[in-house]
Amino acid sequence: MRFINPIPFVRDINHSKAFYRDRLGLKILEDFGDFVLFETGFAIHEGSSLEQTIWRQGPVANEPYGRRNLLLYFEHEEVDAAFENIAPHVELIHPVEQQAWGQRVFRFYDPDGHAIEIGEPQRLGPSGDSQKL
Q1: Do you know which PROSITE patterns this protein is assigned to (predicted)?
Q2: What is the CA radius of gyration of the chain?
Q3: CB 3.0–4.6 Å: which of 6, 38, 49, 100 could bond 34 by disulfide?
Q4: What does pTM read for this prediction?
């Protein structure tokens, strides 16, 4: 068995597709209308359609999908440039800051309230410790 990818539910597939494509710069590999797969393996799915597929019923409540219980993690070679491009268009959790393990990251919410972290690339050292590239 191997893990493939997370698939966050989104309310408006076109709005979310544009956000991830235009704001985060992800390239679309396949667009099936209610399901979009990006080249990185990341995917989004229109929530009402996926709820019907999985549970055989449409949404029973109009609850938000992002509930502060999942963090979508991305890396970018130029964290400061990514921050300058993204920050004016999102609800920030915090600006670029250095974490206890030495990595610089910033966090924000996507259109559905999913928390996103953008960090500079990391690699693990021989002991499993994170090391800045």
Answers
A1: VOC (PS51819)
A2: 16
A3: 49
A4: 0.85
Residue 111 CB coordination number (10 Å): 18
Largest Cα separation within the chain, whole Å, is 49
Enter the tokens of residue 13. 């597939």
Q: In CATH, which superfamily holds the domain spanning 64-133? A: 2,3-Dihydroxybiphenyl 1,2-Dioxygenase, domain 1 (3.10.180.10)
pLDDT in tens, 80-127: 999 999 999 999 999 999 999 999 999 999 999 999 999 999 876 665
Question: Does the CA dihedral 87-69-18-14 come out positive or negative?
Answer: negative
Name residue 82's amino acid. A
Tell me the one-letter amino acid at 79: V
Buried-exposed string 57-85: b where 16+ CB fall within 10 A, e elsewhere: eeeeeeeebbeeeeebebbbeebeebbee
